Amino acid sequence: MKAYADIQNMKERFGVLELLQLTDAAGEDLSAEETAVVETALNDATAFMNGYIRVRHTLPLSAVPPVLTRLCCEIARFYLYKTAVTDVVKDAYDAAVKVLRDIAKGDLLLSDPEGTPPEQGAPLVIVGGAERLFNQNSMKGF
Question: pTM for this structure?
Answer without folding.
Answer: 0.77
